[in-house]
Automatic annotation (TrEMBL):
Keyword Flavoprotein listed: yes
PROSITE patterns attached to this UniProt entry: GMC_OXRED_2
Keywords: FAD, Flavoprotein, Signal
Protein's UniProt name: Alcohol oxidase
Species in which this protein is naturally found: Lentinus tigrinus ALCF2SS1-6
One function term, GO molecular function aspect: oxidoreductase activity, acting on CH-OH group of donors
UniProt: FAD binding residues: 115, 262
Active site: 534, 576
Signal peptide: 1-21
Length: 596
């Protein structure tokens, strides 16, 4: 697809909501009376991609149901620099976790997308494919070489395409063009220069052993520091709605219904003792009417790592003893549903800097912020076209075998191409725990535990499908994860001690600057860590009883029911989860079409 074609596609998306005949704001009579081959629940990365690929076959009629609305081109969604405004907005499910033991018993806000595009419409837009070792571990756990990196390459090639950044600068040396293809999702490197950019890159030449430069972390080997690739095109956010679904808008065999929740999956009968789960129940409110729909071939749950297990448990699919205790009649005894929840822990670490030219100015100066928005509206340039950080680092702890052995643990990463922790650069103050200072200018490293060992769960709050489930990601729930975060903070300190920062860094800020011993660091970490918003694994594929799904993502013990979202991941990728969810959906669609 040429840049001109993408521009035309983007223009179409900007107006399509008002003219699309197959977008319904609720379950109309027309929808309820139609027959669909596949019904997909949830329009995020998994559901949006699967709906698009399945509807490429004109003989397959697809219904895509989204609980949220259709305003996926809202200004706050479209402007990358406004991503933080989307948390606790009308585009967020507004979940909150239970108190996290590993975070000093603090509950935390748990954002999930509630709009066409799902969490791809509210995330920080980092695009990562994952690593060779990540997928090879999936293949081993699932007992299916189809999930290996080598076998997934055809699906990776269908996924992304590199485009020019907003400022059209020369991107030579910022990514490897030979590993990017003509895929559906346009991505780019940062389109607005920051004064810290050369300092970050220079550090990789000054401290190459500890912080090697990585030309392109999407090669399958993430280790090193490199330029962030983001789902941004022409300075606009790219979501599954503006990419995959945009390609499918005019297909007569795809209907999309928004503002509608799937409350449970229904059995239509039995075959060989297994329930045929091709029915769904839908409603728009807790007090409103319910309706039922049936799929001829399959129901696909793509509601995400929180809502997919929630729907399954409400449908009687889960741990039978637990469901009985909650007043739900068990249909399929599948104890692993809702378990294995894991996530990447997030910690903002900030330094005062010798500069008055940082992104802190946008937060404090309303006039400057208005000027930046006006500039973005005119030509897409300026600081509001930036996502979370212009560079990413993926690193392993030194002497990993000895490090984890001393903790009485095995190396939790998938292998040498996969990181233990991540470092994200930000030209300004960052914290999910501390309010931004009213004075001073900052540089921050976000550190993240990228191969966590802690596991949590999703459980029922009640049998009312409009009640949020109980969410426990168990962040920093093991001493291993705390130790890895401690190493990440130490690495961030070592990074800014390089000569490249000697005239820039002034001092560490706040509680960060008061934490020196390991004990002090651990206390600082527990009191300031949050989530990076990557929940996975709650309906994971795997061999035997340990897997809720088989290797082709079918729910065990059922017929006609599949899961296509990050809940299917047996292990979290050592990277951000948007890209791997798209990859999973690409293969899932091929598997489904192969059975049509």
């Amino acid at each position: 697809m040429s840049d001109r074609c993408v521009l035309i596609l983007l223009a179409l998306v900007l107006s399509v909501v008002q003219v699309l005949g197959h977008l319904f704001q609720g379950p109309t009579k027309e929808v309820l009376e139609r027959t669909y081959d596949v019904i997909i629940v949830g329009a995020g990365a998994g559901g949006g991609a699967a709906a698009s690929r399945l509807s490429e076959n004109p003989h397959v009629r697809v219904l895509l149901i989204e609980a949220g609305g259709s305003d996926f081109m809202n200004l706050n969604i479209s402007v990358p620099g406004r991503a933080s405004t989307l948390v606790r907005s009308q585009f967020d499910w507004n979940f909150t976790t239970v108190p996290q033991v590993g975070l000093d018993n603090r509950p935390i806000v748990y954002p999930r997308g509630f709009v066409l595009g799902g969490s791809t419409a509210i995330n920080q837009m980092a695009f990562c494919r994952g690593t060779k070792d990540d997928y090879d571990r999936w293949a081993k756990v699932a007992g299916d070489e189809g999930w290996s990196w080598k076998k997934l390459v055809p699906f990776v090639r269908q996924l992304d395409r590199m485009t020019l950044p907003a400022d059209r600068h020369n991107t030579t040396g910022e990514f490897d063009p030979s590993i990017h293809y003509n895929g559906t999702v346009p991505i780019s490197v940062a389109g607005f220069p920051l004064t810290t950019d050369p300092r970050v890159i220079n550090t990789t030449t000054q401290l190459p052993d500890q912080f090697p430069f990585n030309l392109d972390y999407n090669s399958g080997n993430t280790i090193g520091i490199g330029w962030t690739q983001t789902t941004i095109y022409n300075s606009h956010r790219v979501s599954s709605a503006t990419s995959y679904l945009a390609e499918a808008w005019n297909r007569t065999n795809l209907d999309i219904v928004v503002n509608t929740r799937v409350t449970k999956v229904l059995p239509l009968g039995y075959e060989s003792g297994k329930p045929i789960m091709r029915g769904i129940e839908i409603a728009q409110s807790a007090s409103g009417p319910t309706h039922t729909l049936q799929a001829r071939k399959e129901v696909v749950l793509s509601a995400g790592s929180i809502k997919t297990p929630h729907i399954l448990m409400l449908s009687g699919i889960g741990d039978a003893a637990y469901l009985t205790s909650k007043g739900v009649k068990p249909l399929v005894d599948l104890p692993s549903v809702g378990k294995n929840l894991h996530d990447h822990a997030f910690l903002g670490n900030s330094w005062l800097v010798n500069s008055n030219d940082t992104l802190d100015n946008l937060r404090r100066n309303a006039t400057l912020a208005a000027e930046a928005l006006a500039q973005w509206k005119v030509n897409g340039t300026g600081p509001l076209g930036l996502a979370g950080g212009s560079q990413l680092g993926w690193l392993r702890v030194p002497n990993a075998s000895e490090f984890f052995a001393a903790l009485g643990a095995e190396d939790p990463s998938a292998g040498p191409t996969s990181a233990h922790f991540e470092m994200i650069t930000t030209d300004g103050f960052v914290s999910k725990r501390v309010s931004p200072p009213t004075q001073g200018h900052f540089f921050s490293f976000i550190t993240a535990v990228i191969s966590p060992t802690a596991r949590g769960n999703v459980t029922l709050n009640s049998t009312d499908p409009f009640d949020a489930p109980i969410i426990n990601p168990n962040l920093l729930g093991t001493e291993v994860d705390v130790a890895v975060m401690r190493e990440a903070v130490k690495a961030a300190r070592a990074f800014v001690a390089a000569p490249a920062w000697s005239d820039y860094i002034l001092s560490e800020f706040g509680a960060f600057g008061e934490a020196h011993t390991d004990e002090e660091l651990d206390a600082y970490i527990r009191n300031n860590t949050d989530t990076i918003d990557h929940p996975v694994g709650t309906v994971a594929m795997g061999k035997g009883a340990e897997g809720a799904l088989d290797s082709e993502l079918r729910v065990r013990g059922t017929i006609g029911l599949r899961v296509v979202d990050a809940s299917a991941f047996p292990f979290i990728p050592s990277g951000h989860t948007q890209g791997p969810t798209y990859i999973l959906a690409e293969r899932a669609a091929a598997l489904i079409l192969g059975e049509m």
